[in-house]
Amino acid sequence: MTTDLRDELRTLTTEAADASLSDIDTISTLDAARRMNALDRSVPLAVEPCLPAIARAADLIADAFARGGRLVYVGAGTPGRLGVLDASECPPTFGTDPSQVVGVIAGGPVALTTAVEGAEDDEDAAVRDLDDLGLAPEDVVVGISASGRTPYVVAAVREARRRSATTVAVACNADSAAGREADVAIDVVVGPEFIAGSTRLKAGTAQKLVLNMLTTLAMVRSNKTFGNRMVDVRATNDKLVARAFSLVQDITGAADADVSTALSESDGEVKTAVAIILTGSSAEDARTRLSDAGGSLRAVI
């Protein structure tokens, strides 16, 4: 480690040590848990000042989806894993194609479960990974880095911008290096961690909250919900089949038999089943109406 890097790290709040926690190895586990919980309660408050930037980023992502673009998360270590996690939840929750929201982690898939030495410092790998994805101008790249200075992430954001893609940075230090490279900077300053430098803690929680908001709000703007109902859910297991039934019944008020018939005719598509019941149309006509309305169930009914 160079002297310059040591000096740089000393300036980051994510690397700082909270002196009030210097005795946590001498107190009871319950008292330590109380202190940790108190720190965790500060994370949503740290996210609040970033809401305008989060909303702007979500709108940009929704606009990209409307143009056929993708959301690409890029991160190393915990941030990379959080990006992959959020991406993997979109198809079952919102019925999206798995290619629409993609998570890229430094070091590749093996890094999801095993630390890959030096991966976060490999700027060339970031460029190669985006090249392998065929990154295009209509895509949005969200770089995630607790410090905001991770070379792999900063290089990915810079390369995405060079390719005219929209760029967003999510970090946990003010005026982050990644944020300075991005079109939208979301710098959630959570302060020192319970264990100094362990950014899987408050920083990880903050990043998860932000990623939740980015995809959820973008999907709402993309007509993937009806109010707060996940009407594009894919019924891929017994629980989701039951949820699909309940969604159709709750929205339409129809009898069990009518809900079952509509879901059968629509191949389990909640939106289509609701449109069948409330408009009296066939499944084919319901799908056409939904397509013409940009997927908006509210517009159709």
What does this molecule look like?
This protein is of the alpha/beta class and 301 residues long. It has two domains: 10-221, 3-Layer(aba) Sandwich (Rossmann fold); 238-300, Helicase, Ruva Protein, domain 3, CATH 1.10.8.1080. It is built from 14 helices and five strands. Helix 10 crosses helix 11 (256-265) and helix 12 crosses helix 13 (283-292). The protein starts with a helix and ends with a helix.
CATH structural fold name of the largest domain: Rossmann fold
* Integer tally of domains: 2
Helix content: 40-55%
Q: What characterizes the major β-sheet? A: 5 strands, parallel
H/I helix tally = 14
Mean pLDDT: 95
List the secondary-structure elements in sequence, H or E. HHHHEHEHEHEHEHHHHHH
How are the SSEs ordered, and which strands pair?
Elements (H helix, E strand, L loop, with lengths): L2 H8 L18 H12 L1 H6 L3 H16 L4 E5 L1 H18 L6 E5 L17 H11 L6 E6 L5 H12 L3 E6 L5 H5 L2 E4 L14 H20 L16 H15 L3 H10 L4 H10 L3 H10 L4 H4 L1
Parallel strand pairs: 1-2, 1-3, 3-4, 4-5
Write out key terms for the chains shown:
single chain, 301 residues, alpha/beta, Rossmann fold, Helicase, Ruva Protein, domain 3, 2 domains, 5-stranded parallel β-sheet, 5 strands, globular
Summarize the structure.
The protein is an alpha/beta fold. Helices cover 52% and strands 9% of the residues.
